[in-house]
Automatic annotation (TrEMBL):
Pfam family name, one: HTH_5
Designated name of the protein: ArsR/SmtB family transcription factor
Taxonomic classification: Bacteria, Bacillati, Actinomycetota, Actinomycetes, Micrococcales
InterPro entries recorded: ArsR-like_HTH, HTH_ArsR_DNA-bd_dom, HTH_MetalResp_TranReg, WH-like_DNA-bd_sf, WH_DNA-bd_sf
Assigned keywords, A-Z: DNA-binding, Transcription, Transcription regulation
Region Disordered: start-end pairs: 99-121
Residues covered by the HTH arsR-type domain: 1-93
Organism of origin: Georgenia faecalis
Length: 121
């Protein structure tokens, strides 16, 4: 889950918030931080590796833009994790009830020793 790695650092989260508003160059992104430009570039490289940011070359600049697909995966995971666990337990119960019904029907259809004797006679 690359999106989780992308949002693990506060600087990367802030970069993502900047890019959520609009695509930006590396220099424009670096202006928002008190850290060095190489440090910002390192964070951008991590975000590129996580596929949450894509870069487009425009002249001599690289314009970075947000990609939301990996973050949607994280959101889906968190939504599932934050929802009550009861439905999953009920799913397991429903599966068990269906299995028991299937086994009973199969047992009712299976020939008993008495029916086997009648059929052979």
């Amino acid at each position: 889950m690359d999106g989780a790695r992308a949002i693990a650092d506060p600087v990367r989260r802030e970069i993502l918030e900047l890019l959520h508003a609009t695509p930006l160059s590396a220099g424009s992104i670096a202006e928002h931080f008190a850290i060095s430009r190489p440090a910002v570039s390192k964070h951008l490289r991590v975000l590129m590796e996580c596929h949450v940011v894509e870069a487009t070359v425009v002249g001599r600049q690289r314009i970075y833009a947000l990609r939301t697909e990996p973050l949607a995966e994280v959101a889906t995971y968190l939504t599932r994790l934050l929802s009550p666990a009861v439905p999953h337990q009920l799913d397991a119960l429903a599966t068990e009830v269906a299995r028991t019904r299937r086994e009973r029907r199969a047992a009712e259809r299976a020939p008993t020793p008495a029916t086997r004797k009648k059929e052979s006679a």
